[in-house]
Design a protein that fits this description.
Structural class of chain A: alpha+beta
Number of strands of chain A: 5
Number of helices of chain B: 5
Oligomer: heterodimer
Distance between the termini of chain A: 78 Å
Radius of gyration of chain A: 19 Å
Structural class of chain B: alpha+beta
Strand content of chain B: 25-35%
Strand order of the largest sheet of chain A: 1-2-3-4-5
Largest sheet of chain A: 5 strands, antiparallel
């Protein structure tokens, strides 16, 4: 017989992986400034979208150009995190990601990609000339 | 833990290497440049060539004001200001262990070649009203007003009850002033003592010779004026007018700003010590 004072919850909530996409992206964002003498910075914002998914926006900002801001990509994910969707702005594409390892690979490809490098170099050039 | 500032009206000169020397020597946390047309990106490259310390404040500020700071970008925010012509308001939220919120007012009033003294004083009254409103909005913030006022510490816009009501007396600055049964909060103006000549002859931040009956020659247009709540963290000895950088003099043989090479204004440096109170007022 279950009494009203029995603890019906599981014994513990063990979290295997402490890192979420938001944490990873924030870490990456802090690394850009030092590579560009803080001429180009990366900014991460999180919010909930109208569809109920959580979204994380990853932008590049050039303070010397009156805080010119350009979106690199957006991550949409449910509360369970995976599977998630990355919407890349340039070139426009959407990537479905099933797990954390794939997420890291995809983010690396975007951040080190030709288009991103082109944008950052352009921002640096225009900020310094 | 110190929070230090340098304010310099660079007179639209391309003083990249002088600023580099200034930053290396004085290590300010906040660098305010007035009448600056410098390329922010280029200056950031220079300031961050050895260590990525400085960020540039990206939003547009009152005319030709640029701000660079060593704190995280999120620490500095601009307040909406419809009067963005002569001054801008910012908040600086210094994190633990300083844990203190500052309301910064950066001022660059029109100079006396363009506006007469009465007009500049009137503009100060407008600013003072705006500042009071900001202080009501940010009640737990501590106020610092800095910049090129184009007014001396003794001029009406600075000392008047309807202006900044800034006094040279540190003790009085902690009290309110009552005039016609109405109370007015003081600000503290530490600049007065800097009229005393330095050994090189400098007696202010700006030298102006005019052929007219009343002239002061030496002026202290570049000032910092401090809200009384910051007095425990401020030591008068921590405010100086900078007259040389890396051994190179910014002034001529008479101690006057060498405007041929550098700016016609001298920079000022000041700091606050936030982890421990400096004086017991």
């Amino acid at each position: 017989m279950i009494n009203s004072y029995d603890d019906l919850w599981p014994k513990e909530f063990k979290i295997e992986d402490q890192r979420t996409p938001l944490i990873i992206l924030r870490e990456q964002a802090t690394l850009l400034g030092p590579k560009t003498n803080n001429i180009v910075e990366a900014k991460v914002q999180s919010s909930s979208s109208s569809s109920g998914l959580l979204q994380v926006l990853f932008d590049l900002v050039a303070p010397a150009l009156n805080n010119y801001r350009i979106r690199l990509f957006t991550v949409f994910h449910p509360i369970e995190i995976f599977p998630l969707l990355i919407r890349v702005e340039k070139p426009t594409k959407e990537i479905r990601i099933e797990g954390m390892d794939d997420f890291v690979v995809a983010v690396r490809e975007i951040l080190s990609g030709e288009e991103t490098i082109k944008i950052i170099k352009a921002l640096i050039l225009q900020s310094t000339s | 833990m110190k929070c230090s500032f340098v304010v310099w009206n660079i007179g639209r000169k391309e003083l990249y290497s002088s600023i580099e020397n200034l930053v290396r020597e004085y290590e300010p946390n906040v660098l305010v440049l007035i009448e600056s047309e410098l390329l922010s990106g280029k200056l950031l490259q220079i300031l961050n060539s050895e260590e990525n310390k400085f960020h540039c404040f990206g939003e547009s500020l009152a005319k030709q004001i640029q701000i660079y700071f060593t704190y995280n970008s999120e620490t500095v925010n601009k307040l909406d200001n419809q009067y963005d012509g002569a001054y801008s308001f910012l908040t600086l939220n210094l994190p633990y262990p300083m844990d203190i919120n500052l309301l910064l007012a950066i001022v660059h009033l029109p100079n006396k070649k363009i506006w007469n003294e009465e007009s500049i004083n009137d503009e100060m009254v407008e600013f003072a009203i705006d500042l009071k409103n900001r202080e009501k909005e940010f009640l737990n913030y501590h106020t610092i007003v800095m910049g090129d006022f184009n007014l001396n510490p003794f001029e009406r816009g600075i000392v008047s009850k309807i202006g900044l009501n800034a006094t040279m007396d540190r003790c009085e600055a902690n009290k309110n002033r009552t005039i016609q049964k109405k109370e007015y909060k003081y600000f503290y103006n530490p600049m007065w003592k800097h009229y005393a000549p330095l050994t090189n002859g400098t007696q202010g931040t700006y030298y102006l010779y005019k052929s007219e009956p009343i002239q002061y020659l030496w002026n202290i247009f570049d000032q910092v004026i401090i809200g009384p709540t910051l007095l425990p963290y401020f030591n008068d000895e921590d405010l100086i007018i900078i007259t040389s950088l890396d051994g190179v003099s910014l002034v001529d043989l008479n101690g006057r700003p060498n405007s041929n090479v550098f700016s016609d204004h001298l920079p000022i440096y000041f700091q606050f010590n936030f982890q421990e109170g400096v004086t017991d007022d």
